[in-house]
Write a structure and sequence with these properties.
The chain is mainly beta. It folds into two domains: 30 residues; 255 residues, monomeric porin ompg (Porin, Beta Barrel). The chain has two helices and 14 strands. The chain starts with a helix and ends with a strand.
């Protein structure tokens, strides 16, 4: 009887080790699939500035952005609602990693175009990568005739350029952040003391409140500023609401403009003294 028990015990051990060897072989031969982290932000904008997100391949997005006057203008101006600045834009995904856009703002009658390209993606798995990186470049053309007729601006003098590196990480399902080193070049400045080149650093965050709503914040710190205006750093707070094919953003900001060359370098209002502009972004994807 003892011999039978010992035999069965040894046989059981051999089966266990054989099964473990088989599992080890399968683990080694099974390809490890990396999981790309998605939905770091819900839309292509954090609030004023671009997020890491792109349009998908052959997706077309129609974006309407609106900013009103300062809320501290009081009841006579209906807390800023009597004043407004609007931008319309079309943005198209040439592929999953490359988006092109074209927009027109009522502020200074400005036309702008941009490219945004995803260089690296945040991944989980064997070849994990901790954050996502995209490159953004835009060009803007100011067409308002605010010059002396005898000193008309040339086409080149009306151009502005912006370059950004978007570095984002989705820390958890509820929290994401983005760092945005920024370079702005202005072909024309108001006075000679104003810099043609401005460097800034943006910080954006997203806190998910529920399945469809998140709280977003955004701040841009300028390292050198214009001397001709009392320029202030851009600050924005807002709510993202996802409704099917729409992403609706409600925004409070000290910037009344919606393109990088303007809200990063030309904002003059003090958020903490009540110079707050209510606005919204609404997008529809086709």
């Amino acid at each position: 009887m003892k011999k039978i028990i010992c035999t069965l015990f040894i046989f059981g051990l051999s089966l266990q080790y054989s099964a473990q060897d088989l599992l080890d072989i399968l683990d080694k031969e099974t390809p490890q699939v990396d999981q790309i982290v998605t939905a770091t932000f819900k839309g292509t904008r954090i609030l004023n500035g671009h997020s890491i997100e792109n349009r998908k391949d052959k997706e077309l997005e129609f974006l309407i952005s609106h900013r009103f006057g300062r809320v501290n203008l009081g009841f006579d101006e209906l807390f800023g609602l009597d004043q407004s600045n609007i931008r319309f834009a079309l943005e198209y995904g040439l592929n999953d990693d490359l988006t092109i856009g074209l927009g027109r703002s009522s502020f200074e009658k400005t036309y702008d175009s941009f490219l945004k390209y995803s260089v690296l993606k945040q991944k989980k798995g064997a070849n994990s990568f901790p954050f996502a990186v995209s490159l953004f470049g835009s060009i803007a053309l100011k067409t308002i005739k605010d010059f002396d007729p005898s000193d008309k601006r040339t086409f080149a003098e009306s151009l502005f350029y912006v370059g950004q590196v978007l570095i984002a990480r989705k820390v958890s399902s509820s929290f994401s952040f983005q760092l945005t080193p920024t370079y702005v070049h202005r072909n024309t400045v108001r006075i000679n003391e104003d810099p043609h080149d401005i460097f800034a650093l943006g910080l954006g965050t997203r806190i998910k409140l529920n399945k469809r709503v998140s709280f977003n914040s955004e701040y841009f710190l300028n390292f050198n500023e214009s001397k001709s205006i009392n320029a202030r750093n851009s600050l924005a707070l807002g709510i993202d609401i996802e409704t099917g094919g729409h992403v609706f953003q409600l925004i409070l900001s000290n910037a009344i403009t919606m393109i990088e060359k303007s809200f990063i370098t030309e904002s003059t209002d003090n958020f903490f003294e009540g110079d707050i502009h209510f606005g919204f972004n609404i997008s529809r994807t086709f």
